[in-house]
Amino acid sequence: MLERLESYLHRYAARKRAFPNHPRDSPRRARRLLDLLGAPDRSLPVIQVIGTKGKGSTCAMLESILRAAGRRTGLYTSPHLHSPRERIRVMGLPIPRPAFSGGVCRLLPLLEGSLSWDDLGPATLFEGLTALALEHFARHGVEVAVVEAGMGGRSDATSALTPLLTLLTPFSLDHQAYLGETLAAIAAEKAGAILPGGRVRSAPQPAEAWEVISRRCREVGADLRLAEPAHPEGLGLAGRHQERNAGLALAAVEALCEQGWELPEEAVERGLREVRWPGRLEVVAGGPLTLVDAAHNPAAAQALAEALRENFSQRPRLFLLGCSADKDLAGIVAALAPLADAALSVRARHYRAADPQVLAALWQEHGVPAEVVPEVREALCRARAWAGPSGLVCACGSFFVVAEVREALGLAVREAWPEPVVWP
User: What is d(CA 62, CA 186) in angstroms, rounded to the nearest whole number?
Assistant: First the structure.
């Protein structure tokens, strides 16, 4: 199966190079895949979460609340840390290996057939996984699905669905090559997913983004309300920025209760207390204290810096940083540099990884001593030895780096895409 999946991806890339002007219409392609799978989403309540930062954490909080209230939940997020099965969860548990392999078996012929879709162009793997997730949810009796959008909004595969509620986490500059160079352009792309007559709850936004969101809601008659940050006791995720995400999750609870859902206060409190979301300001080792955080854009790096100032006084501080090449590397380093005593620049095992020499040079521009140690496992050993028992090591910059650090510490095992199976 793995070979067939890789073959499709190569053929997809070749087709896109040969026909670069195929429509970038992810929702219609995802809708066609869903319909070919029997339209499993049509009777399933869906909550869609769109934004730049905090999407995964907001999804995790809301799913945890719904599960604590006795609802059978589905959760679809991206990217994954260690296994693609993490993206598709029922009742908090990743899709089992046999179910994932079986789902990919059913999906692959549809993906291969999409190579001949001259009206829409071939389907992406993300579009396929979106359809697979909803099929899995329907097969396993999910009562409500919390679905995280990918990078976009109106052009995102998850916008093939008809959500009963749309949540907007804060918008900021990211993926400019795909979404637009200005915050207003990015907001227009993301807010374009808001449906006529929809219910929308938004975290606080920059003024430029809020203007675009408000205008879109007025145009389509959507009910827009602002979700203020919340301060729940015992929140399971660390960092002041999580209070903003908690506020959005609580606004979703309020909106659902207005529609007749029974979500007891005790369940809400327990859901927020018990939520877990690896790789987000996560303590993974002690002596020295070692944290991982998937801060992959300047806004997320700034949130990480604020959380470190408020919650962790350990010194010396060493950052182990590796980023994807398409990110604002200078902005990420600038946000973290005031807290750094030293830095190691790494390259994750991923084709999109940035040159660590570039990262080291950026650290040095801010007066931070920096070295290049390309391999993450070796860099982690050196960082922990340098920081000493009373210091702090913060590994960040991309999900790929976070995953490799957690794997190096024995917290997880890397899992490939589905193993070969006997084809029907």
Answer: 25
Question: Has residue 420 been placed in a domain?
Answer: no
Residue-wise pLDDT for 220-276, tens only, equals 999 999 999 999 888 999 888 899 999 999 999 999 999 999 999 999 999 999 999
230 plus 143 within the same structural domain: yes
Does any domain span residue 418?
A: no
Write down which residue in 256, 274, 292 finishes a domain: 274
Cα diameter, the chain: 61
Number of domains in the chain: 2
Q: Tokens at residue 303, please?
A: 């949130």
For 402-414, write each residue's pLDDT tens digit: 999 999 999 999 9
Domain boundary residue, one of 274, 294, 316: 274
Interatomic CA distance for residues 192 and 80, integer angstroms: 26
**SS3 sequence of the chain:** CHHHHHHHHHHHHHHHHHCCCCCCCHHHHHHHHHHHCCCCCCCCCEEEEECCCCHHHHHHHHHHHHHHCCCCEEEECCCCCCCHHHHEEECCEECCHHHHHHHHHHHHHHHHHHCCCCCCCCCCHHHHHHHHHHHHHHHCCCCEEEEECCCCCCCCHHHHCCCCEEEECCCCCCCHHHHCCCHHHHHHHHHCCCCCCCEEEECCCCHHHHHHHHHHHHHHCCEEEECCCCCCCCCCCCCCHHHHHHHHHHHHHHHHHHCCCCCCHHHHHHHHHHCCCCCCCEEEECCCEEEEECCCCHHHHHHHHHHHHHHCCCCCEEEEECCECCCCHHHHHHHHHHHCCEEEECCCCCCCECCHHHHHHHHHHCCCCEEECCCHHHHHHHHHHHHCCCCEEEEECCHHHHHHHHHHCCCCCCCCCCCCCCCC
Can you list the residues of the chain whose pLDDT is less than 50? 420-424
pTM given for the model? 0.92
Q: Are residues 334 and 247 in the same domain?
A: no
Q: Do 258 and 379 share a domain, yes or no?
A: no
Same domain, 112 and 257: yes
Structural domain includes residue 198? yes
Q: Residue 67 is part of a domain; what is its CATH number? A: 3.40.1190.10
Residue 328 counted as domain residue: yes
Residues 101 and 137 in one domain: yes
Q: Are 270 and 372 in contact (CB under 8 A)?
A: no
User: What is the span of the domain harbouring residue 119?
Assistant: 2-274
